[in-house]
Structures are given as C-alpha cells and as structure tokens.
Amino acid sequence: CCKLDLQGSDTDFWADFEYKLVDSIRNTMDRRTQFYEDEIRKLSENRLMPVWNFCNFFILK
Questions:
Q1: Which of 8, 23, 39, 55 would be 12's cystine partner, CB 3.0–4.6 Å?
Q2: Are 38 and 60 a contacting pair, CB within 8 Å?
Q3: How distant, in Å, are the alpha carbons of 19, 41, 42, 57 from that of 36?
C-alpha cells in the first residue's frame, strides 16, 4: 500500500507513481527471493536427516 499526492502537478504525480511502483515491485521480489533462499538453506541443512528428500530439494533449487 502506498500513498500518492493527487494535488501536485501531473509530472510530479507520474514520477512519484513510477518510483513507488518500482520500489514496491523490488521489495516484493526481494522478499520472495529471501523466502526461497531460506527454504533452500533449511532443506540443505536437513540433508542428513532420515526424512530428507532430494526431490523436494531439487525442485526448489
């Protein structure tokens, strides 16, 4: 969610809108990437456990 100033000029509005949109997309991608890295790390750390499954690890990686 982000707040936009509709009272400013058109160029300021679109520049602000573009900046916030790109920033939101970047933040979302960073969080998603971090989630997958954490999952891969957890699966990699558990590879010596008896229930570890290479297929799950391979699919995520």
A1: 8
A2: no
A3: 26, 8, 10, 11
**In this predicted model, what pLDDT tens digit does every residue of 29-61 receive, in sequence order?**
999 999 999 988 888 888 888 877 788 777 777
The residues near 8 (Cβ < 8 Å, ≥ 6 apart) are: 16
Per-residue confidence (pLDDT) for residue 54, from 0 to 100: 81
Q: Is 22 part of any domain? A: yes
Q: Is residue 3 part of a domain?
A: no
Structural domain of 16: 10-60
What integer pLDDT is reported at residue 44 of this predicted model? Answer: 84
Burial zone of 4 (CB within 10 Å; 0-12 exposed, 13-18 middle, 19+ buried):
exposed
